[in-house]
Write a structure and sequence with these properties.
Blueprint lengths: L1 H15 L22 E5 L3 E5 L4 E5 L2 E5 L6 E11 L4 H12 L4 E11 L6 E12 L2 E14 L2 E12 L3 H4 L3 H7 L1 E2 L22 H26 L1 E5 L6 E5 L3 E2 L4 E2 L10 E2 L5
């Protein structure tokens, strides 16, 4: 059961691991201006995410949906654990689109390298979709990860959408919003609190625990540097209010040696340590 809970936490990261293949900041074309928006970090009951100011969020135990003020540009996530039956990444996406946008049609797909799973290997696949939303032609991109075995399956999916007219620009920063959605309440997300889980009571060895803590900090710093270098965003905080932001690298002000606070431009934001 403990491995099952850990696997649930990992499956979200496995699906998100494919996001840098979407449109990394390093691959931005010279013809598109990098005027990407700052992202405000929010904490929900089950997940944490980052989105532009003014966006609305809808959170459930199985995911988070983030909407722009006009409702056309959005990021959607879904986490389903231990469902009965047979499913493929494409089947799950088609089923989801019936609820999200019935007009959406898959225009292309790319199979990604599989990853180890608890029941079976994680099948990962990227999809491009086209459709109409609120009267506007839209482009969508989704990554679906699915692991199946013993007549059951788990799925992690992330999807983002933008108008066709702004897709070339929006695809430079929407993957960062999608990747920012992480599980922070593993014991309740996806209905985990409905199952009695065994307690883990490790040997009380303060030296061993501290060594593992330091090891984790080192790995966190490496992970943070890799993520920032790939996505082109860095995580910062307002030292007075505690409001957190994802700031694009191009917002760095060399004249003051830092990132200006979007709310109070005369003040600088503070760099957050790994894991925050």
């Amino acid at each position: 059961m403990e491995r099952k809970l850990v696997g649930l936490c990992l499956l979200w990261g496995i699906a998100l691991a494919a996001f840098p293949s979407f449109t990394p900041a390093a691959e931005a074309t010279a013809t598109v201006a990098l005027d990407r928006p700052p992202l405000e970090i929010r904490q929900g009951r089950y997940f944490r995410w980052a989105s532009p100011q003014g966006w609305k969020a809808k959170e459930t135990t199985n995911g988070v949906d983030l909407f722009s003020p006009d409702g056309i540009t959005f990021v959607s996530s879904a986490l389903l654990h231990g469902s009965f039956g047979h499913m493929t990444p494409r089947d799950f996406l088609v089923m989801t689109m019936r609820q999200v946008n019935p007009s959406a049609r898959i225009s292309g797909s790319t199979a990604l390298p599989s990853q180890p799973g608890i029941w079976g290997p994680w099948q990962l696949e990227d999809f491009d979709l086209a459709g109409v939303h609120k009267g506007s032609p839209v482009h969508m991109h989704a990554t679906v990860g699915l692991s199946a075995g013993y007549g059951r399956y788990s799925v992690a999916m992330s999807l983002y959408q933008a108008p066709v007219t702004s897709w070339q620009h929006d695809k430079l920063w929407l993957p960062t919003v999608a990747q920012s959605i992480v599980v922070t309440n593993a014991r309740q997300v996806a209905g985990q609190d409905s199952v009695m889980l065994p307690r883990n009571n490790p040997l009380d060895n303060s030296g061993l625990i501290e060594s593992w803590r330091q090891k984790g900090l080192s790995e966190d710093r490496i992970s943070q540097g890799r993520r920032e270098g790939t996505m082109g965003y860095t995580r910062l905080e307002d030292p007075d209010t505690g409001q957190r932001y994802e700031m694009p690298f191009e917002a760095y002000d060399g004249g003051v040696g830092g990132y200006r606070n979007p709310t109070r431009p005369t003040e600088l934001l503070r760099k957050l340590p790994p894991g925050y």
